[in-house]
Amino acid sequence: MYEAVRRWFDPRELREVGETPDYRFSLANERTFLAWLRTGLALIAGGLAVAQFLPPMPVPHLREALAIALLLLGGTVAVRAVDHWARTERAIRLGDELPASRFPAVLALLVGLGAVLLMVAVVVQGVRNP
Length: 130
Known about the structure:
Distance between the termini: 53 Å
Keywords: Cell membrane, Membrane, Transmembrane, Transmembrane helix
Transmembrane segments: 33-53, 65-82, 103-124
Protein name: Membrane protein
InterPro entries: DUF202, IM_YidH-like
Subcellular location: Cell membrane
Number of domains: 1
């Protein structure tokens, strides 16, 4: 675990592995990393928006639970982004197969599940307060 985290912060170690790739591949990997960071920031912003602007929900503390879930998910996406960037860059330099990840599918399922739960909460609130 320590080695993986160290690789995130030590670009010299990464440059010493394998061969220098075509810069376009490294830049594409960096663009993907930045897209994941934007996704993490959007989830964090959504969590803050839920905490500050969503009216009280029919289930006690549902608003707070949703906000915390979005904040945690956003932080997880950011950490996962840097780990994936480092593993991918290493694979590119070594000429290995790119690392596979289930994380995008898990993230999509969690976001979809969250949307369904929010729809249920909105319907319940609409039925209670016509």
